[in-house]
Design goal:
The protein is of the alpha/beta class and about 240 residues long. The protein has helices at about 10-25, 50-65, 85-100, 115-130, 170-180, 185-195, 205-215, 235-240, and strands spanning about 1-5, 30-35, 70-75, 100-105, 145-150, 165, 220-225. The chain has a single domain (about 1-170, about 220-240), classed as LmbE-like (Rossmann fold). Strand 4 (about 100-105), helix 4 and strand 5 (about 145-150) form a beta-alpha-beta unit.
Length: about 240
């Protein structure tokens, strides 16, 4: 099977899908991560091309640690994504080129506009990937993929409803290691944003323990909701997709 996880920023897929990605990759499935922006605004000191280059390198290292086959980052500015035609074409093209069987992305209700609009772009692609005259330079898929949503905590207009929960205890170390690769985010930007930058240890090993404590709730299971716009499957069929052979 071929899976593509689509996030708004380099590190989104790791947070929401990292353990499942490692599990699927270990089982022999092909997994790709796609970020719809280059992350060039997610820092309190670095910016622009310098930050985008750093985050690209971090993402590639995270992919290596998870066993993810490919990590593509689109050259759209962080914080400026809009659900427009060019973005839809980019997402349609990426799903087709990967020949995806399963597509996972955010729901279109979230605190961050890039997350919301990535969710809309993925929804908008859910039928268009099968239409030959849309993005005609990339062959259309004959079968519409299954589209799933990442888990989130937002309640309006409707709360997240888990159709599938994947235990990742056996892959928690792989997920933690992937998140640890995003030094600019988990040890710099996010602690600064939360006013706790001075609590981040300087020692590499201690820092990883600190991160594990901070993210403990993300390291045991990952849940997903079936999107109504893609191919529909039963709960049993959905579970089988994520079952190791």
């Amino acid at each position: 099977m071929r899976f593509i996880a689509i996030g708004a920023h380099p590190d989104d897929c790791e947070v929401k899908f990292g353990g499942s990605a490692a599990k699927l990759s270990r089982a022999g499935h092909a997994v790709k991560f796609l970020s719809t922006t280059n992350g060039d605004a997610g820092h309190h000191e670095l910016r622009g091309p310098q930050l985008a280059a750093r985050r690209h390198a971090e993402a590639q290292e995270a992919a290596r640690r998870l066993g993810v086959a490919e990590y593509e980052i689109l050259d759209n500015h962080d914080g400026e994504l809009l659900p427009l035609l060019d973005g839809r074409r980019q997402v349609v093209r990426a799903i087709r080129e990967w020949k995806a069987d399963v597509v996972i992305g955010p729901r279109p209700n979230d605190y961050h506009p890039d997350h919301r609009y990535t969710g809309i772009l993925v929804q908008d692609a859910a039928y268009m990937v099968t239409v030959p005259l849309i993005v005609p330079e990339t062959p259309a898929l004959r079968n519409n993929p299954i589209f799933l949503y990442f888990e989130d905590r937002f309640q309006k207009p409707a709360p997240f409803r888990p159709d599938l929960t994947i235990p990742i205890d056996g892959f928690r170390d792989a997920k933690l290691s992937a998140l640890d690769a995003h030094v600019s985010q988990f040890y710099e930007w996010l602690p600064w944003l939360d006013g706790r930058l001075d609590s981040v240890p300087s020692d590499t090993a201690d820092r990883k323990v600190w991160l594990e404590c901070a993210l403990a709730g993300l390291l045991h299971a990952e849940s997903f909701e079936l999107c109504e716009y893609g191919r529909q499957v039963s709960p049993e069929e959905l579970r089988e997709l994520f079952t190791e052979p």
